[in-house]
Structures are given as structure tokens and as C-alpha cells.
Write a structure and sequence with these properties.
CATH topology: Jelly Rolls
Number of helices: 3
Order of helices and strands: EEHEEHHEEEE
CATH superfamily: YjbQ-like
Structural class: alpha+beta
CATH class: Mainly Beta
CATH architecture: Sandwich
Shape: elongated
Radius of gyration: 15 Å
Distance between the termini: 6 Å
Largest sheet: 5 strands, antiparallel
Strand order of the largest sheet: 1-8-3-5-6
Number of domains: 1
Strand content: 35-45%
Helix content: 25-40%
């Protein structure tokens, strides 16, 4: 089954914790053991799994991505001016597989699933495939 959620991102570059949305899709699907695929079908957004206990981790990740791939680079040729967002999305990836066991996502103690916005704010699609 396919589950879709709309996620409104609040800033031009941010990480939005979507763990609860993915968990809700798992519960609604009735899957008890297996794999799911989570995707964001966008070229300037991504998904990542990382610590969700200390918000400084997200802040640091965004800062380091910006250092490596600045928002404004005079050498960029893409007319929309968002080449940095395409690069960041490509590096982090737009889909991830997850294990489901006992009807729940298998994540580490501090892990959360983040939709990564690099060209917002926008409304993004989060797609969860459970079979």
C-alpha cells in the first residue's frame, strides 16, 4: 500500500522530523514484520536519519552543508538559482528503506527520520510504501 502525507516546511533550509508520520503509516498498513520504503519525490528535498534528541545536531548539519555547498555561488549556471539545493538533495538521497518488527519501525534510541528542505518553504510530499 502507498501512504502519502503533505509536509509544510517552515524555512528555506530546515529538517522536519517526520518519524511520527512514517510510524502512523506503518500502523495504518497493519504490517508487522518486513520492510518499508520512504521517499520524498522532489529534486531539492531529501531524507536523512539522524539524532532527534539534541536539536543542535540538525543545526550543525545544516551549517556544515551550507559551508560545503553555499546557497549563493556566482559560478552556478542553473537559472533558478537553487543549484545548492539539488546538490544537497542528491548527496543525502530522496528515499530510504526501513525495517518493521512487531508492527513498529526499527530505529536506534536517538534516531529520527527527517525530511530535509533545501529550497523552501514549500509543501512537500512524503510517500511511504508498505508493500
Amino acid at each position: 500500500m502507498i501512504y502519502e502525507e503533505s509536509v509544510r516546511t517552515p524555512a528555506s533550509q530546515c529538517f522536519v522530523d517526520v518519524t511520527h508520520l512514517v510510524a502512523r503509516a506503518v500502523k495504518a498498513s497493519g504490517i508487522t514484520d518486513g520492510h518499508i520504503l520512504v521517499a520524498v519525490p522532489h529534486t531539492t528535498a531529501a531524507l536523512t536519519i539522524n539524532e532527534n534528541a539534541d536539536p543542535a545536531v540538525v543545526t550543525d548539519m545544516l551549517r556544515r552543508l551550507e559551508q560545503a555547498f553555499p546557497t549563493h555561488d556566482a559560478a552556478d549556471r542553473h537559472a533558478e538559482g537553487n543549484s545548492h539545493a539539488h546538490v544537497k538533495s542528491s548527496l543525502l538521497g530522496t528515499c530510504h528503506n526501513f525495517i518493521v518488527s512487531g508492527g513498529a519501525l526499527v530505529l536506534g534510541t536517538w534516531q529520527g527520520i527527517y525530511l530535509c528542505e533545501f529550497d523552501g518553504p514549500r509543501t512537500r510530499r512524503l510517500v511511504v510504501s508498505t508493500g
